[in-house]
Here is the input.
Amino acid sequence: VEVTELFGIGTKYEIACGGGQRLVIVVRKDGARELYAFQDAKDNEPDAVIRLDEEQARRVAAVLGGTYFGE
Here is the structure.
């Protein structure tokens, strides 16, 4: 994971995925999260952008972390 401080905005986390894909997560100072998915790690424009508030980000993290078992 490559971490970059985005001054005045928040923190960017960049993750190299299998098959040459890349995922970038920006955690904004206001609590919002932005996920940028790149099919080709060399691309500058993402193939998908998802914006999440803090609660939505927690739910996604719980599912990805294997701790979400239903409502």
About this structure: The first strand starts at residue 2 and ends at 6. DSSP finds one helix and five strands in the chain. The beta strands are 2-6, 10-16, 22-28, 33-38, 48-52.
